[in-house]
Amino acid sequence: MKITIVGKNPEKWYKEKAKALVDYSVGISGKMEQWAKANASSPKGTKTHVQADGRTKWIDRSGDARDFLRAGVDANKDGFSIWIGHGKEYGKYLEECHDNKYAICGPTIKHYTPIINAAVKRIFGE
Description:
With 126 residues, the protein is mainly alpha-helical. 48% of the residues lie in helices and 11% in strands. The chain has one domain. The longest helix has 31 residues, at 10-40.
């Protein structure tokens, strides 16, 4: 068990931690987007190949699905979230069809969840 002592100014402590989380989230969302794009597609005109996790990289026909992958941070009064998604209407198809073998958003989240969890613990000093 661990007890964190906030000190005499809990509002300042909270604001510092919230700013650190938002700053980290903005940075990691950019890394998530880069990772997803790098792991989503094969170079234009090449054949697909099966990756170590059994997924198949995309055949990059137009480059649009890869180019329109986006990640970011949404904030509101209740908190914030890190997100990743497709900017093309057929992105859902890539994620959910063919036994998820073309999925990239789910695998990106799976890859980054332990990294983000460890960072949150570091920010809060755990």
